[in-house]
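Comment thread on ticket #2218

A.B. wrote:
> Attaching the input chain for the structure job we discussed in standup.
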Amino acid sequence: MSINRRKFLEALTLAGITLPSVTFANYKRENTNDEKFSFIVPAYLQNQIESSITVFSILNKPAFAWLELLDDNNQVITKIYQSEDGMLEANTDLFKFEIATAPRKFKYRVAAKEVLKFDPYKISYGEEIQSDVFMATLASQDQEQIRALIYNDVHENMDTYRELVPNKNTDIYDFSILNGDSFHYVTNQVDLTEKLLKPFSFFATGKPFIMNRGNHETRGAFSRHFKKYFGYPDNKFYQSFKLGPIYWIFLDSGEDKPDTHEVYGGTVDYDSYRKEQASWLEKVLQSKERKTAQHTIVVSHIPVFHADDWHGTLHNRSTFHPLFQKYRIDAMITGHTHKYGYYPPDQDHNYTLFIGGGPKVGERTIIDVMGDKKNLDIKMIKDNGDLLGHLKKS
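C.D. wrote:
> Ran it. Output below, let me know if you need it in another format.
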């Protein structure tokens, strides 16, 4: 391969472009016919909106699957299918089961039958399997206290997910946030399952997490299929909601280079996308739901201050920062720089800015957010337990 061709292919990978001869099937996990039918990732919780929750499941072969809600004796209470336009989802390996009115605590498992033949006149099934039984605990929209755990820039250091949980205790958290750059780039389904969903299953089968996209999730051949594997309201990477006394705003900060940079090959438009989000952001900051919250937190991957002077930082600043100032958020939680920092309000910003650390041992951080009706307590903790920044609002 010539140097020019190698650079060209590297640029395609960064931009998330694939050559015309490559199909979507090539991006997904390949399996052989003699492989035993099984779950790749039995379950992970997504998209907690009001009273609903979505349970995702991934299998290694095309299947017909369903979710079973169980009683205390593990007897089936009800079965839930993924249904659209009168058809139950089948002959696929990715399932999304929505529990429209989910109990705050419930037991569940996923069951599936392998699809051997699927044509207009005959559907043939093979083996039926069941996942383990899982217990889910969900926050109530109006509960008096909420607590979340925020990671950033894990960059495929899979041990980080367990190692950074304070005191190894996940029970005290209502949900978790992955604030970008969990990956170097995403080239296929295996990247998602092996580098995130399996390592994070200790948390994700029992409590939901939010994947907030970073600039590295925009890169690689699978980046344009990435959204299918996570739950987003209105099918947008950006979102907002009130949970407990906190109003949460998640922004997609996009790429860090100009849209015209040669590596993207003319295939991106993040400037317009950020402007689209700004129009939405101003509306949600003025919403009735936000006004009923005691605290407002913005979570975004790229910081708007105390970072570099690349285009991504500067455009995020010019697009979002004036709205943060005008409508008085409490804190912005970011990452991206791989250099942790804690910045109280100053002459540039009237809100506290957290920047999480990088992926290497000794530079990693976790951000612990707790809020009730009177107090907001945000701590940034280094992987050795040192407290690096602490916002306490009463």
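A.B. wrote:
> Thanks. Noting for the ticket: The first strand starts at residue 39 and ends at 49.
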